[in-house]
Automatic annotation (TrEMBL):
InterPro entries: 8ODP, NUDIX_hydrolase-like_dom_sf, NUDIX_hydrolase_CS, NUDIX_hydrolase_dom. This is Oxidized purine nucleoside triphosphate hydrolase. Oxidized purine nucleoside triphosphate hydrolase which is a prominent sanitizer of the oxidized nucleotide pool. Catalyzes the hydrolysis of 2-oxo-dATP (2-hydroxy-dATP) into 2-oxo-dAMP. Also has a significant hydrolase activity toward 2-oxo-ATP, 8-oxo-dGTP and 8-oxo-dATP. Through the hydrolysis of oxidized purine nucleoside triphosphates, prevents their incorporation into DNA and the subsequent transversions A:T to C:G and G:C to T:A. Also catalyzes the hydrolysis of methylated purine nucleoside triphosphate preventing their integration into DNA. The keyword Signal does not apply. The lineage of its organism: Eukaryota, Metazoa, Ecdysozoa, Arthropoda, Hexapoda. The keyword DNA-binding does not apply. Its cofactor is Mg(2+).
Length: 313
């Protein structure tokens, strides 16, 4: 499943953005004019006619911070869309770890400062930065699309990993939302945050349905009429060599005499589940509970969700 949006009838304006790294530091400049005025940013600008994108990146670094690029590598492509506009800004994102010369501030960019990566001033940068910065840190090629209403309000974000996905192995799991009347079984994931039950691996050669039957009938004596497949979710972990595909079933155990007990889990009133403490998010659970079939895609960096997308079946 590819969550990436398709654009027809849009023109494109090419731009570059180079993030300069040294050990554990990143070089940022305060933009004093043009696009992104008042924000810390990497270095870049429009690609001129008759210039390659790589050459534009090298030229912009020199113009905006004085450094001479020795080598750069492209790490991502980001499309910026503004609501109501039929022009996409196509930003080519580069990493530069080899450079020479002295930093020179200009009217356009000052001050220019090395920041420790963990001290990157995300709140004074473009909002999109925090979504793709983990890719820069971990040097994972990506493609992204951000839709803005205006410079301070983002309407939609999509990030996908490009090169790795092909090489990644894929594991399939089933998982269950077990409910009775107004309660569901949730497990405690980390302190204060709740999630559905643990994913159960589907065996090699076994169908998804048979796998669900095996877990539910064998362990809890349920019959196939009591559960229904609602959703399939693709989860990609940015630094893992495998992606997960998880099929979610909703199981109503209201009529069972002995309600199941599942390791590390407890019954929770649905009305007590708050938007903040549920993983991955509330939309996910509410769609399942409304038995509304869907597909979803999540891109995860450690415990953060960088991208979540829902599609109706
Ligand atoms: C919407 N969210 C965004 N998030 C992160 N970065 C963004 C951005 N939108 C624009 N950028 C970057 O801002 C620079 C603008 O370049 P900027 O130099 O102002 O363009 P300008 O029109 O002045 O071009 P010239 O330098 O004259 O070629 C350029 O690096 C471009 O990639």
């Amino acid at each position: 499943m590819l969550p990436y949006p398709v654009f027809e009838g849009y023109s494109r304006k090419l731009m570059t953005l180079t993030m300069i790294l040294k050990n554990n530091e990143i070089l940022l400049g305060m933009k004093n004019r043009g696009i992104g005025k008042g924000k810390w940013n990497g270095f870049g600008g429009k690609v001129e006619p008759n210039e390659t994108i790589d050459d534009a990146a090298i030229r912009e670094v020199k113009e905006e911070c004085g450094l001479d690029v020795i080598s750069i590598e492209k790490i991502g492509i980001i499309e910026f869309e503004y609501s109501g506009s039929k022009e996409l800004l196509e930003g080519h994102i580069y990493l530069c770890k080899l450079f020479s010369g002295e930093i020179i501030e200009s009217d356009e960019m000052a001050p220019i400062k090395w920041y420790k990566i963990e001290d990157t001033p995300c709140d004074k940068m473009w909002i999109d930065h925090k979504f793709w910065f983990p890719m820069i840190q971990k040097q994972i090629p990506f493609k992204a699309h951000f839709k803005y209403l205006n410079d301070d309000t983002m309407l939609d974000s999509t990030i996908v990993i490009i090169s790795n996905s092909m090489k990644k192995s894929r594991k399939t799991f089933v998982n269950f939302v077990i409910k009775k009347e107004n309660q569901i079984l949730l497990c405690n994931k980390i302190e204060g945050s709740k999630c559905l039950l643990k994913h159960k691996p589907v065996r090699n050669g076994e169908s998804i349905e048979n796998s669900a039957i095996r877990y539910l009938e064998w362990n809890y004596g349920m019959t196939a009429e009591q559960f229904q497949k609602i959703a399939v979710v693709d989860i990609e972990f940015i630094d893992d060599s495998c992606t997960q595909e998880i099929y979610f079933f909703v199981v109503d155990v209201t009529k069972l005499i002995n309600t199941p007990l599942i390791e590390d889990s407890k019954w929770v009133n649905i009305s007590d589940i708050t938007v903040e403490n549920l993983w991955p998010d509330y939309t996910f659970l509410s769609k399942l509970l409304m038995m509304e079939p869907f597909k979803a895609y999540f891109l995860i960096n450690e415990d953060n969700i960088l991208c979540s997308k829902y599609y109706n079946n």
